[in-house]
Every structure is written in structure tokens, then in C-alpha cells.
Amino acid sequence: MLQAVGEAMYQAMEADETVVVYGEDVVGGAGLGEPYEGAMGGTFGATRGLFHRFGRTRVRDTPISEAGLVGVAVGAAASGIRPVVDMMWSSFTPLAFDQIHNQAAKLRYMFGGQASVPLVLRMAIGAGLGAAGQHSDTLYSLYTHLPGIKVVVPTTPHDAKGLLLAAIADDDPVLFFEHMRLYNTRQEVPEEPYTVPLGSASVTRPGTDVTIVGVSYMAKLALEVAGALASDGIEAEVIDPRTLSPLDSETILTSVRKTGRLVVVDESPPRCSIAADLAAMVSEHAFDALAAPVRRVTSPHSPVPLSPPLENAYIPDAERIRAAVDTVLNR
Amino acid sequence: MNVPDRTLLEMFETMTRIRLFEERVTLEYQRGDMPGFVHTYIGAEAVAAGICAHLSDDDLIASTHRGHGHSLAKGCSIAGMLAELYGRETGLCKGRGGSMHIADFEIGMLGANAIVGGSIGLATGGAFAQQVKGTSNVSVSFFGDGGAGQGILYESMNLASIWKLPVIYVCENNGWAESTPASYSQSVEDLSRRADGFGIPGHVVDGADVFAVHKAAGEAIGRARRGDGPSFIEAKIPRISAHYVGDTQKYRDEDDLAAAKQRDPLERFGSELTAAGLLDEAAVEAIRSAIVEELDRGVAAAKADPWPAADGVTDYVYSGAYGA
């Protein structure tokens, strides 16, 4: 998936000279001088090669100044260019929260539609690397709460490329969440540029007995669990929402009306989260179709811990998803 | 005095326009039919006028909650601003922003911002876009001594300095952040000294002296247009008006207010122009009456203008259809 993300940025920059990419270490080695031998190309390598192709005006390393980076992106986007900013980890975005919430999200509205803020903030999310409290948050729920912001949570390499190209071309501020444990996922994707529209969920497995909605890495895990359930004769329908804002609620409601049962899997604390949001949305609009209460499989209400047994307890796993499915099926 | 007479008279007209606008808004606000909060720019007129005199519509500014003066100096229409203050659909921001969020992107006014340091990142980003696009346009951030307390200033100045962005940071230091004096809340008397720490030239000017502001701005803006990077101008201004309309300023010493009024920039400039033979009483009256007439028309029109339709509450949240 990492390569797909990089390819999307490369192709967006090829197609539109107003697209710029900057962030901490996106060149990686700005102090080395030409030709930047040993350049890092981003914390994970997603931006590798961009500097050599597009040059120092459009691809820049930055100081560690999250608020400044986003503030500049908002002003630049409102002045006619399309910044794609590498925030490194979602856990660092609260340093720029004012710029995201009070500026990026609100300019178009406060100014009566005059301002357009076409920026993308890319960031890694997720527990599982033992990175503990301040590197492992998901935070997509937090930003889904904010009117004016769009939230993208790709699961597959194909979707990551198409969604990122759509996000860069979008005229609204988009936060793009890349789960670290998906970076090594492999899949053939078309070489030419293509887009996956924001606000369109993907039914990754059709089924009739229960609907499982998984977000980001949890969509992948849900699909694996569904495969195992099938051998027990349970046909789960798995939905990857792909974007949380806008949300393709219709695809989820249609599925729940068919299956009558819903399990939401989300690697985040449960309060005021996307899992809570989906449960409320389905209860409000498809209550009569529900044969059992909605079950949420989430992380506990805690920060992400370091110690492996604790971290494993934090991340929703196949066993907990299966247990939730059993509960809604009254088994 | 090497500023062309025409420019001097235009700056005087701009300053008068700001003063009369603010006095009228204060009056109308006190009648109680203008929603929200209003912070007036009285006492700071020389700063907006002296700086914006150097700018074209392609140059950018970003402003604060006390932004009427910057808006008028950049060229926002009185009618559009008044309709916005009254929350009407005909306002510059279609009634979604109000006094603290006046914007007019057509003329490079990137908006007043109720986050006191909000203009700083925006203007720095505007300058970044000019550099990427290869223009010679500049971007100006207006903020107060209060706004200088927010960290965005220091992150932005560092970026602007290492990238040589065409941005001018204009700190209007009126000595007060609401009820808190700068002498208490700021570690140095001259905030422009902090620019030194970022390799940015910092200048202190008497913000009640439009000549001094105009000169410093000309140098800073010229430097930015040449690609030589950012500057910082600290304009010491008298706080003649209160923090907001309705603030009784009981926290403030009467002598402080009296001293501020002694430094009235408009009176000073008027006297200077009169002494130089560029202005007389009749000319001042002609300028004033034309503005008063525009204000009369603007207030009447705004009050009669339509409100936004209630079902428009989610208009302009996103660029297009949002879905769920």
C-alpha cells in the first residue's frame, strides 16, 4: 500500500503543477546537499523519488512545526495551490488542531463560500508496533466530528491510490489515514491514474446473516473473520466504508436491512467514535430491521500501551469479532 | 515628505473612512439589532492605511477579530461589510461570518480571524503559494500584541525565514490583550526583537504616525517582492477604543486612556496635511460627508436586506454535495 500512496502523489504532481508535497523528512536529507544520496523519502518511504523528479520548490523538508505546517497549508490552499502535507503520525495532529479545526475546516463556511481549501494531510495510524501512547492513535473519529473536514481511511492498495488521487483533486481539506500495518499489504493496482470517489463504501464480501463494518485495518481483519465464519455456515457481509466523512450510510443501511444484524469493528476508544456513530445511525434509520442490538468491537477507553500483552488487549482481534457475531446471532 | 500628495490624500481618506465606519458601527451596535461581537479599529487607522497603500488586489492580507480597518484599507465595500455585520445574505460572507470574519478573496483579503493569531499561518501560506507560483505578490499578516502570544507566530516566522517567503508580519501593539497589559504578559517591551531570533529584520514604528508606517512598510514590502524574505513591523498604537463595544474598561487607568487619545493618528495626520497645505476644513468636510452618506445608505440597505434562508445552514460547509 505504501507504494500505491507514493504513486498517487507522483501522478498528482505530474498532472497538476500546483500540487506540492512537504513535511518532516519527506525528502529526508535536506542537509546532505545534491544529489541527496541517502534521502529518506518520508518516515516510511512514501515520498521517495518525488524530490528528484519535481525539485526543491514543490517538495520540501520542514522543521518539526505541526501547527506551522498546517497553517501554511491552509493559507496556501486558499491562495490557489494544493499542498499535500506529511504529518507523520496522527498522534501529532493535535499540535495543529486549531489550524485544522478553526482554519481549514471553517474558512469556506465563515467566508460564505469564497474560500476553497484543497489540502491533504497524510498520516500514519494504528497500534501494533509497540510504539505506545503518542505514536499509535487512530483519531479519525475526532476529525469526522468536524464539519468542513473530509476523512479517508483506505484499506487496500487499490483504494489507497484511487482515494489519495481523489483527495488531492478534492476542493475540501482531507485527512488521509494510513494504517501502519497495511503498508506492506500487496495488490496489483492499475499503473495509470484513477480515482475512487470519496463517500463510497465497498462491500468487500457479500453475505446474508450479519453485517460487519470494519474501519481501516479492521476492514481487513473483518474480512478474514468472515472467511472463517463461512466454514461454520455463517455468511457475513463485510463493508469497508473507505471514507468516514462523507459517509456512505446508504450502503450500510441497505446491508443491515438485508441481514438484520450489525457488528462494527473499530481500533479506537469507544466513546464518541465512528463505531458509536454507526451504531446510532443504524438504530435511528433501520431499527425495525434489527433482529439484535448493534454490537461494537472497539479498543478500551485508554491510551495505547507499550507492553505486548497490553497492546494486544487494546487492539480488537478475530476472537472478539467472532464473539460479537455470535452474540448478535444469538448463538 | 517624499510620498506623492495623491497617496497622502488617499491614506487620509482611508483613515477617515475607517474612523467614521467604526464610529457608526459602534452607534448602530448599541441600538441592539446587530448580532455578535464588535471590536473597533479606532486608533490604529494609520497602520492599515500606511501598509495597504503599497498593495494591489493581487497582494494578500489576513486580519484579526479587529479587522474592519484592514478590510476597508484593502478595498472591501462599506455596503458589503455592513450587510455582513447585520448577518444578511447580501453580506460579503453571506451572513455566515459577521464582524470577526470579513473576507473578500477577489481583492486579496483572506479574512478576518477570531483566533487572534489566526492570520499568521494563513498569510504565511499565502506567501508560500506566491513563491510556488513564481509571482512577485506579497502577503501581510496583521495581528496584535495579544496574538503574538500564540505559538503559530514563531513556527511561521521560522518557516518564512528558512524559505524566504514574501510575508510581512505586522504586529499592532496597543499595549493590551483585552484586560491584560502587554507590560505584564509579554517578556520584552518591543515584540519585534523576537523576529531577530528567526533571522528576520524587525522594526518598531510609531503606529500613530502614518508616515513612519508607510515608510517601514515600503521597505519591508519591497524586500519581500525582491525575494529577500520576510520582515516584522511592530506598530505601537494607542488603544483609543475599548477591547469590544460594550467593554467599560474598568481595569484601565484613566491616564492611560487619556494618553492614548492624545496620540490620535487621524487628528495628527489631518493637522500635518493641513500644515502642508494639502488639506483644509472644506476638503475634510467633503471627504467626511461623502463617507457619511455611504454609511447612511449602507446601514439602511443592510437593515432592509434579506436574512439567509434557514435551510441554508449547511451551505458552504463543503465544496459540493456532501451526502450523509
User: Which percent range describes the beta-strand content of chain B?
Assistant: 5-15%
CATH topological fold name of chain B? Rossmann fold
Mean pLDDT of chain B: 96
Name given to the CATH homologous superfamily of the largest domain in chain A: Thiamin diphosphate (ThDP)-binding fold, Pyr/PP domains
Describe the structure.
The complex is a heterodimer of chains A (about 325) and B (about 325). With about 325 residues, chain A is an alpha/beta fold. Chain A has 2 domains: about 1-180, Rossmann fold (3-Layer(aba) Sandwich); about 200-330, 3-Layer(aba) Sandwich (Rossmann fold), CATH 3.40.50.920. Chain A has helices at about 1-15, 50-55, 65-75, 95-105, 105-110, 140-145, 155-170, 215-230, 250-260, 275-285, 310-315, 320-330, and strands spanning about 20-25, 60, 80-90, 120-125, 150, 175-180, 200-205, 210-215, 235-240, 245, 260-265, 295-300. Chain A has a 7-stranded mixed beta sheet with strand order 2-1-3-4-6-5-10, sandwiched between helices. In chain A, α1 (about 1-15) runs parallel beside α7, α3 runs parallel beside α4 (about 95-105) and α9 (about 250-260) crosses α10. The longest helix of chain A has 14 residues, at about 1-15. The model of chain A has no long low-confidence stretch (mean pLDDT about 95). Chain B is of the alpha/beta class. Chain B has a single domain (about 5-305), classed as Rossmann fold (3-Layer(aba) Sandwich). Helix content of chain B is about 45%, strand content about 10%. Chain B contains 12 helices and 7 strands. In chain B, the strands form 2 sheets. Chain B has a 5-stranded parallel beta sheet. In chain B, β4 (about 175) and β5 form a beta hairpin. In chain B, α1 (about 5-30) runs antiparallel to α11, α2 runs parallel beside α3 and α5 runs parallel beside α6. Classes of the chains: A alpha/beta (about 325), B alpha/beta (about 325). At the A-B interface, α3, α4 and α5 of A face α5 and α6 of B.
